[in-house]
TrEMBL record, chains A, B:
Span of the signal peptide: none
Species in which this protein is naturally found: Roseospira goensis
Entry's EC annotation: 3.4.13.9
Every Creatinase N-terminal domain range: 13-152
Enzyme class at the top of the EC tree: hydrolase
Domain of life: Bacteria
Residue span(s) of domain Peptidase M24: 159-347
One function term, GO molecular function aspect: proline dipeptidase activity
Gene3D superfamilies given in the database record: Creatinase/methionine aminopeptidase superfamily (3.90.230.10), Creatinase/prolidase N-terminal domain (3.40.350.10)
UniProt name for this protein: Xaa-Pro dipeptidase
Classification via Pfam families: Creatinase_N, Peptidase_M24
Length: 384, 384
């Protein structure tokens, strides 16, 4: 068995989920988000790319419905005892298998919360499931139920995130050792990911962002690597990942020398980062953090160069997305609490000059404020 | 601009999609699968983790609806001129923005094909979209339309897949250079991914599988790395990835020495692989390939140790899943054609003995049969 939390902690998490379900008048939960399955049972897989559901009754019974390739995986990585399989075949109906399972669990006629917002539960599969369960149970969207529990981290989770943050720092060191005029972007990626795997870490839930030259203004991965010019700029966004817990970081690194435009942008982003860290405290909202960011950037006359969000929560996430709930955007009323972890990205572009400056780091909300999780300060790195 | 195909090829692909749409009586397509967006326009992003839709009218007009972080990405990586943005906000309704866009394109009252089966279009988002478009357009599931075009590869695509296969071979060499008694699994992963990044390749659409000891019988990734025992077994499943085109491989590598049980399993899987390559030919079905696999394994009395599928198509796929359509399982009526590429995995376990043997390789369907894409033969590797 390879489970990264004490059984008692997993039991307490499930008890909390059951309490939350009962508080909503639900007889049970149909869980499809891999984040939820991992959080509640330890189950660690990418098998959610096909139909996979954890049934958790409000009184704490549970069963997993999955495919054969995940049978041993569930036995080895989770505390789930009751594992049911559905078989690939033309016209296979895992939805019918789920309906039968619900009947067996005495849930027919009941009111169930369901995670409709799960990457593995596409709209197509959701429609078939809705038909199969129509008249059998009443379904109510509960996509947020486990996410709301996950957002405040336990001490054991914070420890995993600290490990992830250390791996992210190591990846930056590895990048800086490779980045120089003429360096190949692929070598930089190899060094960064290598630092994480060699430290016992995991794949990130989405690709690292790497872009140089004009593509330093992108904030998504794309295929196709280039060599750095003698004078260049390199934007990197990456995460250390440990036990699937992410701690993201971001930098734009001038290559050869920092241009005056880079320095001007950096000053704005550094001030915005300080303002965000100040705003990231219990009692404030996610919207307050975004406002702190926007106020600094807009006052500097750089409004056109910023995005409409300046970060998001970090947690144990699975492909295709490490951006956990909630996000830091204008007006988001979510109230911050100690134990939450956020990635703060001060993404700023000067489109006319073709320049980027994007410092980012992850920070833990404490009882009294927040603390960055990285040992690297946010300063203007230049790759010699 | 970074686009990995000639504009003329992209234009021809869109023309084929429009023809297919018209043949189904559709006035246009609402495309949500990142595989489709990349295939038709070059657009290369992980922005599909949020609401993102390409509207393609049956007469060839198109517009992309996405978020601000993907504006520059779409300009740099795609041939899409018309890019519309929706903004994050509490209660943001990209669905309403899409409805307005359809009206602007003269599609109100029309019949549209939609990719309901897309990881980015979760059931929750699909339900909201269905409500927003109810009475505005008639929607018909067209999740398979572009996939059916993608399954037969163009010469340019085959060239990318050959590059991917070479990177996969390099990754095996890198793994064998690290694998030995006492080696740390994380170092092996670092070496394999490093070989791919350094060769200009991409992240895989799902994690590589790595498992040793009892976990050599898993066929999913899980977090948590160990060191190899003096006598051990190491199962690896990985893909070379180039321009997002995947060429997967798989091996179980005895460590220290091969046990007799490994050799017995290997003989069965090698015979099954030969039978599958023989069955993988134009005119046969996907089900025929699975039957070839099952016949060999079952005749050897190993039925309990096999899975219900023995492979799937390879193509340009995005997280969380590199398993492209179609899959090789019993009775799948899909007819094979030249230009298709499949990963054939002969996954075989001996649960009682705790042994695995899982050779796998990717192969191209030719006019007369099939050819493996790897330079590595399927033989029994042992890590000294």
């Amino acid at each position: 068995m390879t489970i990264h939390f004490e059984a008692a902690e997993l039991t307490a998490r499930r008890a909390a989920a059951c309490r939350a379900a009962r508080a909503r008048g639900l007889d049970g939960l149909l869980l499809f988000r891999q984040e939820s399955l991992y959080y509640l049972t330890g189950f660690d897989t990418f098998g959610y790319v096909y139909f996979q559901c954890l049934v958790l009754t409000a009184d704490g019974r549970m069963a997993l419905l999955t495919r054969a390739p995940d049978l041993r995986q569930a036995r080895r990585t989770s505390v789930i005892d009751d594992i049911r399989l559905w078989t690939d075949a033309d016209g296979a109906t895992p939805e019918a298998a789920l309906r039968d399972l619900l009947a067996e669990f005495g849930l027919a006629g009941g009111r169930l919360g369901i995670e409709w917002h799960a990457y593995g539960l596409t709209a197509a599969v959701g429609q078939r499931l809705g038909v199969a369960l129509d008249g059998v149970v009443t379904l109510e969207d509960a996509s947020d139920l486990v996410s709301r529990l996950r957002v405040v981290k336990s001490p054991a989770e914070v420890e995993h995130i600290r490990q992830a943050a250390a791996l992210a720092d190591n990846a930056l060191d590895a990048a800086m050792a490779e980045a120089r005029p003429g360096a190949f972007e692929g070598d930089i990626l190899a060094a960064m990911h290598g630092a994480i795997y060699r430290g016992g870490g995991d794949d990130p839930a989405n690709e690292f962002v790497i872009g140089s030259g004009p593509d330093a203004l992108l904030c998504r991965y794309r295929s196709g690597r280039r060599r750095l010019d003698p004078e260049d700029q390199l934007t990197l966004e990456w995460a250390g990942v440990y036990r699937h817990y992410h701690a993201a970081m971001m930098r734009t690194i001038p290559v050869g020398r920092a241009r005056e435009g880079h320095r001007l942008l950096f000053d704005v982003t550094a001030e915005a980062m300080a303002a965000c860290l100040e705003a990231l405290r219990p009692g404030n909202t996610c919207g307050d953090v975004f406002d702190a960011h926007a106020r600094v950037v807009d006052a500097a006359g750089r409004r056109d160069g910023r995005l409409n969000a300046c970060g998001y929560a970090m947690g144990a996430t699975f492909a295709p997305n490490w951006m956990d709930w909630p996000m830091l955007y204008a007006g988001n009323p979510m109230v911050l609490e100690a134990g939450m972890v956020f990635f703060l990205h001060m993404i700023l572009f000067d489109d006319a000059a073709g320049l980027a400056m994007c410092p980012g780091q992850s920070a833990l909300v404490t009882e009294t404020g927040s603390v960055p999780l990285s040992r690297h300060p946010v300063d203007l790195l230049v790759a010699g």
